[in-house]
Amino acid sequence: MRSHSSPPSTVRRKIGGLFAALTVGVLGSTAVLVAPLTSHAAESTLGKAAAQSGRYFGTAIASGRLNDSTYTTIANREFNSVTAENEMKIDATEPQQGQFNFTAADRVYNWAVQNGKQVRGHTLAWHSQQPGWMQNLSGSALRQAMNNHINGVMAHYKGKITQWDVVNEAFVDGTSGARRDSNLQRTGNDWIEVAFRTARAADPAAKLCYNDYNVENWTWAKTQAMYAMVRDFKQRGVPIDCVGFQSHFNNDSPYNSNFRTTLQNFAALGVDVAITELDIQGASGTTYANVTNDCLAVPRCLGITVWGVRDTDSWRAEHTPLLFNGDGSKKPAYTSVLNALNAGSTTPTPTPTPTPSPGAGQIKGVASGRCLDVPNSSTTDGTQLQLWDCNSRTNQQWTLTVAGELRVYGDKCLDAAGTGNGAKVQIYSCWGGDNQKWRLNSDGSIVGVQSGLCLDAAANGTANGTLIQLYSCWNGSNQHWTRT
Ligand code: XIL
After folding, report:
1. How far is CA 193 from CA 199, 209, 234, 359, in A?
2. How far is the CA of 219 from the centre of ligand 1 (A)?
3. How far is CA 163 from CA 128, 192, 211, 304, 378, in A?
4. What whole-number distance in Å separates Cα of residue 100 and Cα of residue 45?
5. Which residues of 284-320 are buried (b: 16+ CB within 10 A; e: fewer)?
6. Distance of CA 242 to CAs 1, 126, 163, 239, Å?
7. Identified catalytic residue from 78, 169, 193, 405
8. pLDDT score for 351
9. How far is the CA of 212 from the centre of ligand 1 (A)?
10. 479 closest CA partner among 449, 451, 441
11. Other C-beta atoms within 10 Å of 105: how many?
């Protein structure tokens, strides 16, 4: 718990802004400055209590229960964010290929917005709850169907969903840290980043999340694998904004106090984090409070969603894992969570959307060990790039922008002078064209968006002065680059 004599800087700033005129120079002590915090009346619902620190407290909603007034009364009173428990999944929204059906999804969506709640979208690409037609697809037909599905669902809700779980549960349980085998995975390892790129284009306003379970314990291989993927995505400019931790805690996958470390480490990569499907076998009040405090401790933790309202609504009803009894009464864990929220203070930092670009760095040829270099530090448009010994000068410092440009000197772009094999790659004033946009792939290739050709050290050269061109991608090490 944070001491009241040392509020976090965000709170200090906020209070400073509100009360500076009254207090500065009059009563100027820190103790007086934080007084408004301690005098804040405790809120009496989960949603309002979470909102004190700028967060939400949400629940999964099942459309089939919306005519149960005990259910809707609690849900409407306590929660300010909603996730459709099943209604926005692939089998529900595209039961026949190319024929979208949003009847049940809209029932949940409309109930949520009519009652003033935000909506998390769940989920666009997943190995489970696929309709039969999709289960039978593979290869490029499945890849296309995945993209088409993302486009169809996101278009329907464009601008209306705060966070989308773009990809769900892509890693396997256990100690391997491997991807889960699935029809989607078999379309190629890049299926996840393709899903995120498609999603960004479909609804640029939504935060795009990767969501998984058994990734809360920092020491687990699955957590580390997810971390490596998110770090890689951020480094290569794949658009990802948030990571969802399902947090289905039970005897096989118990809560561990290192969950806070996990949330902090992911946040440090430059993504928001969220607790997306919380339930705890036995509903220990202490564990519920610990999870709540873990989120409150991390400024980029956006909020908490529990996976259902009453124990009897839970997908794991036998675990009695939720905050309300079957009769609608509050469980002890409810009070633990509410008290933790009322005591919490840090304000979450909003994510800049889309993904902020990673900082400047060198681009080093794998074959040559030499860097992408502007000859003689020229700033003249049309100067062709070369390989040169890596050094610390600005003519080797490249910044990947959100748009996919590689900028040097701030306003010059890596620019393809043509679209065919051998086209010169030069610097040119940035103007937003596709010949100045590049895709950094996980295999180290850098592909021109306009041409589809690879950034290539000419004639397989490795020496200082080797010119840089476009060439058909052939997986050669003269086409592989690392960013340092
Ligand atoms: C569950 C639902 O709660 C059940 O009603 C359904 O039968 C199966 O799916 N991870 C997820 C959720 O991402 O979508 C799952 O929801 C629970 C595990």
Report:
1. 10, 12, 11, 20
2. 25
3. 20, 17, 11, 13, 44
4. 36
5. bbebbbbbbbbbbbbbbbbbbbbbbbbbbbbeeeebb
6. 25, 17, 8, 10
7. 169
8. 53
9. 11
10. 441
11. 23
Please tell me the distance between residue 157's alpha carbon and the centre of ligand 1 in angstroms: 21
Q: Is the CB of 314 within 6 Å of ligand 1?
A: no
Q: For 183-197, b where at least 16 C-beta lie within 10 A, e where not — what string?
A: bbbebeeebbbbbbb
pLDDT at 2 over 70: no
Residue of 361, 312, 303 lying closest to 484 (CA atoms): 361
Tokens of 120: 């998390």
Place of tokens 């021109």: 448
Report the relative pairing of strands 207-212 and 242-245 from DSSP bridges.
parallel
| Ligand 1 atom with minimal separation from the 126 CA | 13
Distance 112 CA to ligand 1 centre (A): 19
Structure-token match 């902020």, residue found: 356
What atom in ligand 1 is closest to the CA of residue 276?
13
Hey, what are 482's tokens? Answer: 């690392």
For residue 206, give both structure tokens: 């939504």
Grouping H, G, I as helix, E, B as strand and the rest as coil, residue 283 is coil
Closest ligand 1 atom number to CA of residue 169: 13
Q: Which residues are CB-neighbours of 481 under 8 A, at least 6 positions away?
A: 363, 364, 365, 366, 372, 444, 445, 446, 455
Ligand 1 contact, 355 CB (< 6 A): no
Model confidence at 328: pLDDT above 80:
yes
* One-character DSSP codes across 289-342: HHHHHHHHHSTTEEEEEES-SBGGGSTTGGG--SSB-TTSPBPHHHHHHHHHHH
- How much distance in Å is there from the Cα of 307 to the middle of ligand 1? 9
Query: Residue whose CA is closest, atom 7 of ligand 1?
Result: 315
- pTM over 0.70? The answer is yes
Two tokens at 75?
A: 């849900």
* Sheet with 454-457: strands ordered across: 438-440, 446-448, 454-457, 468-471
Q: Is 169 a catalytic residue?
A: yes
What is residue 389's three-state secondary structure?
A: coil
Average pLDDT over residues 269-284: 98
**Which of 218, 167, 224 has the alpha carbon at shortest distance from 192?**
167
> Is 87 designated active site?
no
Residue nearest atom 16 of ligand 1, based on CA coordinates: 85
The full length of the chain comes to 484
Give the per-residue pLDDT at 55: 98
Rounded mean pLDDT of 46-61?
98
Q: Which two tokens stand for residue 373?
A: 């270099």
